[in-house]
Amino acid sequence: MSAVERKAYKTNRAFTAQGLEYLTKRFFDDPFLASRDGVLLRALLLEADRLIRNHGAENRELVFLSLMTALDWVDRYVAIAFAAAEKSGDSDRVKGDLDSYLNRIQTWYSGSEKIPYNGATAILCDILVRWREYYLRYLERTRTSPEEERRVELPGQVKQRIGETIAQALQKDIVDRDQKRKKR
Length: 184
Fold this sequence. Notes:
Blueprint: H1 3-8, H2 13-28, H3 40-55, H4 59-88, H5 91-110, H6 118-138, H7 156-183
């Protein structure tokens, strides 16, 4: 944070807790939570991260952020699985995969578990196992539909003209720089 931000944002863990409480109520009730084009999980993570960085957080909010971050890793693979499942008509099964974790996280977050957070640890372990299963199935993929790099082949004359134009521009820069030096 900049000096101005440090002055404006005070440590206020209660504010972080209230902010996350508000965000999660909106988040868990949204009908578009688990969909191929859904960005709600990412939005929640960004807002939670911002709240925590600016105002601090209690352990419970940090654990919640960890759970949601791990779920985001699974969600990225779910987007890939959605694309494949839409072709076979099995997209409801894929959505259900994310829903089970969301329900467990929501139940945990609305509860009052204290350190050592055994329930949260169990959820996190299950999410990470699922993430690893997706990884083994799809490997490291970041997009639902990978775009192939389009290569444009320029005709020889065009390449030559581009090269000449660049050479002329460089030459002009050198001449201009030398003239400025002589004036000093």
